[in-house]
Amino acid sequence: MKKQYLIHILAVLLLSVQTIQAQEKRLPSELEINLKYGADRLGKRRDVFMQKFRENRLGAFIHWGLYAIPGGEWKGKTYRGAAEWLKSWAKVPTNEWLQLMNQWNPEKFNAKKWAQMAKNAGVKYVKITTKHHEGFCLWPSKYTKYTVANTPHGKDILGELVKAYNDVDIDVHFYFSVLDWSHPDWRYDIKSKEDSIAFQRFLTFTDNQLKELATRYPTVKDFWFDGTWDASIKKNGWWTAHAEHMLKELVPGVTINSRLRADDYGKRHFDSNGHLMGDYESAYERRLPNPIKDLQVTKWDWEACMTIPENQWGYHKDWSLSYIKSPVEVLSRIVHAVSMGGNMVINFGPQPDGDFRPEEKELSDFIGKWMKKNGECIYACDYAGWPKQDWGYYTRKENDIYMIVFNLPYSKQLTVKTTKNVQITEAALLNGQQTKLIEVACNEYNISIPKTPPTEPFVIKLKIKTSEGSANKYKDALT
Length: 479
Ligand code: H79
What we know:
alpha/beta; seven-stranded parallel β-sheet; four-stranded antiparallel β-sheet; 16 strands; about 20% strand; globular; binds ligand H79
């Protein structure tokens, strides 16, 4: 009888210990899957290198490779698709495609001129395609024969560009496509032992090229990976984490985009626990978040990139095949990105002769002139946290709020709604023109713009003050 009683007590004790353990398992962190190759960090990076990346805000993309030579045309036929994918659209065999190297002789290429153009455009960084999907390298890589070294031009384009941009204080970021159509060991998927062996060789080759880039050009500030969406990479998530860690050891402070990464389960960009991998989200390609609905993007760093035509990154001879964004539209996308705490990178696809097409020069001039006058509402600015209004976008730098006006209302009155306890004390155009600031309700103002407002998008700078718990003189409607 006594023995039975003891067993009963023991059983109750065991059960309660199990219950406590089960309860502990319900804590949120314990709910997460254990990942070897998931996010390395939660939340934004706060070091000076990431801060510089973020404060730069406006960048240029350069897509330059063999694809510039045919410019979207193959054997007399024009292809509407992206010019840098022409090898794929026209089903050109690899050997034939790589023979374009014999025509790589950009006689007008002048790195200093490119750097001056970028400087005049107001961009703070340039992302250069070191190697796109075709496999042709803009630097004399010792790990492949498909490089600038084996062309009539023969010069290290990448090296000249890094120096020229750095000389005018522009950061250089490296675009790198892991997918490489020129390499026999590349695989889209791993379906056999042979695939696996070949792909491991391919990953070693890629490591070698990345180490080569990081050591030859140690001022590089960022690696932006592309061509990482295939099953072969998703099945080798370990390698994506390894590549990021390897580069971070080689280049202190370097930043890396989310597109590189796949976790233990092949989940990309965000790991299986929903945490961003890499340092910033890079999925905003030719699209932007919704300024009302997608405010969660303000929680992490992100960078968008955009083409001027609908979808041409490399040089295409015929820009009439798709809609071309006007300079003001391009500008509105830059402002849109910054208003949501992101960076914007505008793409340029240089001609095969090393010069830029006239439309790109015009756009670059327009953006540069605007940035010279209004750049303070872009550089180092962030999401303002105020409710979006129809006239345009807000950005913020500490206690300065910028209104960037793209849509003028007939009333010539701009509605501004602040957040709780925030008052506006001053409102003036960056060009010095005065405005009339009227408080119309609690946390709501009207700003009258000048009778003859500027003829291009303009900026109003607001000074604000925060007062704790000020009495509300306005009464809500009783309903
Ligand atoms: O470098 C520029 C583009 O060439 C590259 N990224 C920018 C910065 C890019 N283009 N497309 N993509 C990335 C996404 C690829 C989509 C794909 Fe497909 C879907 C690859 C395979 C399926 C579309 C359909 C392209 C080939 C078939």
